[in-house]
Amino acid sequence: MTSKALAAAAAALVVFLGGLLSGCAAGQGTVADAVETLYASASVSDVEAATRQARDAAILEWGAEEQVIEPFSATALQSAYAADADGADEPRYGAQTLSFWNYYTEFVDTVTQHLRDGIRRQLTEADARAYYDAHPEDFAVQDSMTVRITEWEGTRAVGASELDIDADTVRMLQEADDLAISAALALRAGEQVTVDRGDGRQALIECLTRESGGTYPFDDVMQAAAVRAASDIFESELRGRIAAAHP
Description:
4-stranded antiparallel sheet; 4 strands
């Protein structure tokens, strides 16, 4: 980055940080205040902003409790961003290309992942097994199906084919024709559906046969089960923290 570009970036950052700091000074100094002011300074005001603010604040407070991060400070994060974007010979990832807002959101994502990983490390094989047993749909093997797809242009059939869909072929078939295959996967044996391909073309999809694929053996998916269990625990704890902060 040229010195002129750096100067311009620094000037813009000063304006942004000035607004953020003045907003924080007016608040009560809590993490929630800092996050709310940051959202306002970044002009984030969509209908889900308040929900995301509450989630961010709870994550940052939780991260500090678990010593994943130091107690959150907008000014400290701003200083880190300015240092990364300004003078290092080897700036850390994204510092010269990310806005401060994106820098902040990546920071929250990183704290989130550390918290999930911490939960995952505490889980036992029995915990993973309990999740696996309670959520068989998460570990289902693709059913074996035979479907017939008839292509129509207006009122004229222009071609038909039969496809065998199973765990080995489903991804390849979806890459080739996601519209039709995704519709086929929702059908039971004997059912049919018509999908519109546009420009007067339709595809009639008939499910001729369907057999359950069962579930993957626990040993094959134990790590995936543990990750999903950790994510569930994380979200449950986070909901409780948000509820406690917003009774």
